[in-house]
Amino acid sequence: MELNPHDLDLKVKNIYSPTYPIIANQITKKFGINKGICIDIGTGPAPLSIALAKITSLKIYAMDISEEMCQIAEQNITTECLKNRIFPINGDVLNMPFENGFANLVISRGSMFFWKDLSSGFKEIFRVLKPDGGGYIGGGFGSGELKEKIKNKFKEINEDSSENFYKSPPKISINTLKLAVDNAGIKDYSLINNDSGLWVIIHKKRD
């Protein structure tokens, strides 16, 4: 499924916007990592990076495989006066432009459903994590209540248009996801599959 960068930016701002502060708070609550370096994979127009920057002191690399999306992200970051905190970077999860042990935190909402190789993506995430670092990777709306509100909003839009504006991402089964993480050689992880969404929580222990 191709994502039009400008269409996605509009949907994020007009429909999905309540999602990102909730997920950002869930990430900080899970790990307690409020400073250091964060990588946001498949950042899109950078809404999660922006939400996380507002509640932490993290230096965030907002990475996306689309150069056009990175340009839109940069515009949004500038609008939020966060250019000294969030840095858009063009890159692929399968070959990230970061050295080993680079980041304290790696996050992603919505991108893993589009990775060409799930296991290789998780292997790269583990590579760039520092010891004692954490990963919060997956997709969802943060809560079941918010998911219903957003779906209803899309339903209202669809009733006024001939186009179906709500296009759900490709599905990943729990077994497929677990196998991908296991094959990446990651031992310390857990899966969340509830009203908040489907998430992989990774802990990289110090040797």
TrEMBL record:
One of its GO terms (molecular function) is methyltransferase activity. The keyword Transferase applies. SUPFAM superfamilies: S-adenosyl-L-methionine-dependent methyltransferases (SSF53335). Residues 39-133 form the Methyltransferase domain. Keywords: Methyltransferase, Transferase. Coiled coil: none annotated. InterPro entries: Methyltransf_25, SAM-dependent_MTases_sf. Gene3D superfamilies: Vaccinia Virus protein VP39 (3.40.50.150). This is Methyltransferase domain-containing protein. The keyword Methyltransferase applies.
